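Notes continue from the previous slide.

Worked example: a multi-chain complex. Inputs as given:
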Amino acid sequence: MMEVIYILPLLFLVACALTAVLMKDLLGATIILGAYSLIMAVVWTMLNAVDVAFTEASVGAGITTVLMVAALSRTVRGEYEPAHEARGWKRKRFSITKVSGFFVVVLTAAAMIYGTMDMPDFGDPNAPANLHVARRYIEESRHETGVPNFVTAVLASYRGYDTLGETTVIFTAGMSVILLLRRIRRE
Amino acid sequence: MKEHIVIRTVSRLLIPFIQLFALYVIAHGDISPGGGFQGGVIIGASVILYVISFGMEDGRRRVSESISDFMNSAGVFLFAGIGVLCILAGGAYLEYTAFAGKAAHGEHAEHALHLASHLGIYGIEIGVGITVAAVMMTIFFETARHEDD
């Protein structure tokens, strides 16, 4: 019975992804991607990664959707179909592009599924990722930093440089947007 | 969507609570999920909600360009500045326990070290939150279509 609860959101994710790809209305596809992220947040919560779930819900479902809608407000709502206007050889070329794109997706998916075969079981204490510094973080971070949530301890204390780098990346993104898109009023 | 009374009323009711929740998320990053990044995103989202329901000009009246630009860099500056303060206090860059100073070897050494590290972590979380919030609203303000386009 419990398996159904785990499998249901994953099936829903596949359904969302397929609908978003096949939909012609770009605004609808954007909203469906937001729903996709929200279900992804549920999946993260089921995997006990609450911090990741929080980020997914706020960034993936919230901000990304809003920014896509903002970008759509400057373009058109429907998908552009060049194949309708093209004739003859050009038209054939568009369908070749579509089919080859599909094959690339299928090949990538096959490679990824092949890659997961060798993955250790979920939560395996002897998995390589859990043997290196993870144990130290779990056992010592409370004592060393005084912070109960060791995700925060890792982000803010042990990996403070990385977080500074990330913040700088976000800052740079904001600056680039201002430089590229802001219309300077010349008086 | 400026003319929709339902959207305006609901967002006027919700935005204070969204922002309060964002501050909670930033302040409780050390004991519960979340932290500066998520809290900052929520603050940015609350401003975006305001702009969507009241329009771009009204939004810019609340958060002017100079304020959001200042917040953009102020967060990173706070983060990096705390690192420099750690050096001035005698530790390595971003080594928050340096703030404890002489108390690190005193009677309540562990307490002092934890307090110092808490202070540093709070500081950088606030810095991350300020920058992330400002960048999120900036991107929205600059990409979304203006009324006069």
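Summary box: Chain A touches chain B at residues 50-51, 53-55, 58-59, 62-63, 66-67, 70-71, 73-74, 143, 145-149, 151-153, 155-157, 160-161, 163-164, 166-168, 170-171, 173-175, 177-178, 181-182 (CB under 8 Å). Chain A is about 80% helix and 0% strand.
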